Amino acid sequence: GILGVHYVRSLPPEAERSAVSTTIDIAAMFRSEVRPTLWRTWLGLALERPLIGLGFGQEIPRHYHRPRNPDDPVLADRYTGHHGHNLFLNTMLQTGLLGVGVLLWLIAGLVHQFLRRRQHAAPAAWAGLALVAAMLLKNATDDFMRDAVAMYFWSLAGWLLAHAERADGATVRA
Fold first, then answer.
1. Rounded Cα gap, residues 163 and 127, in angstroms
2. Among residues of the chain, what percentage have pLDDT more than 70?
3. What are the pLDDT digits (tens) for 124-171?
4. CA-to-CA distance for 13 and 19, rounded, in angstroms?
5. Phi first, then psi: what are they for 55, rounded to 5°?
6. How far is 7 from 27, CA to CA, in rounded Å?
7. d(CA 133, CA 136)
8. 52 in helix, strand or coil?
9. What is the average pLDDT value for the chain, to the nearest integer?
10. How far apart are the first and last CA of the chain?
11. Half-sphere exposure of 90 (CA within 13 A, CB side)
């Protein structure tokens, strides 16, 4: 920090401007991002069975759709052809809108419980809300809510909620 400021101040004025100003072409960055394309592809496939999906398991959609769409570049790619890279999209692919509804209900119930306890059990309640927010942000661009990560998330959420309940003196209700 301080050494960087000292270095920039020691530069001639024209070099100082180029050292501190960098331009980021955000439009180019978004044009090169593959996720919007793969989200459109996977959403189109999810809409083929919107109510109940294909079946539970992250690999199920790939095994079902890849043989039926062998020329699709998203499905043929070894990185994008496995799943939709979004928690809610993958849930829809596997369990349909009913599964997405259940997932949203679970998350909303968890958030509601943490919000109810933020007055009397602030540290645990705010930590729980931060946990849910971090999970939703991370899973917006990929789906990590499976296997050990899902177990860690729900275990930590349960532990924080139990801690908040104990501090609040209330009973957890769904």
1. 11
2. 82
3. 999 999 999 999 999 999 899 989 999 999 999 999 999 998 886 755
4. 10
5. 135, 155
6. 32
7. 5
8. coil
9. 84
10. 48
11. 22
